[in-house]
Amino acid sequence: MTYRLRDAVTALVAGTAAVGIAGTALAAGVGQPEHWQIAMQEPVTEVARQLHSFHTELMWIITAIVLFVLALLVVVAVRFNENANPTPSKTSHNTAIEIAWTIVPVLVLVLIAIPSFRLLRNQLIIPKADVTIKTTGHSWYWEYEYPADQGGGFRFDSNLIEQADLKPGQLRLLAVDNEVVVPINKVVRLQITSADVIHSWGVPSLGFTMDAVPGRLNEIWFKAEREGVFHGQCRELCGQRHAFMPIAVRVVSEAAYATWLTEAKTKFASTATDGARFADARR
Length: 283
Ligand SMILES: [Cu+2]
What we know:
The chain has 283 residues and is α+β, with helices and mostly antiparallel strands.
């Protein structure tokens, strides 16, 4: 019994220490997972930072509750076992305690709800967008469309690079042939839908995940504060190749974005004929 108790306490202390560290030093991976990572990937948007601090706050609350319950269990085991307390009390009700153990959890939930709803509001209320992009989930790849009125007017597919074709530096199962390119420090509104089953577009460093549902247009937004490539994956179990439809967002300077737009217009399919295409499809 004693060694089990000691193990439990050791595990709890280690867990608590990990939680503390996870909030700061071991936040690992910029835009990608890393070996032995125990914390979330580094945030590159305000919302992702808020998500992380909310996560850390919750871990402290959970840890306090676990330690409190553990302390109660220890008291019960030590003071009220058969040897220490041969004649048990026949008490079955205590109004004061019953009121307390109803109200205290309610207060804890309210305490959690306030920052939670604040975060949801920040995620769901989309600020005025500088760039709008639409993505469509397909089984099993992502399609991106840059509307003509945003300086785009093209669309392309973003497919996984198979392991045999990886170049040095490209990540297995995360690298794609065509990355979504967005400018740094600009509000990007991403419209998300699906052409077949439910997928989900999510990039941990950006702090967003959103379902891609056929027949529905969902929206998220992000304002990336750092240049680089940020990886994500489909986050809805969507079928056989669910694990093979990664997401790669490349954040670049405004000048580089303008250059990329010009190149992309010649490289990718134009959306100018979409009206005719869909009319054809309906016939
Ligand atoms: Cu999917």
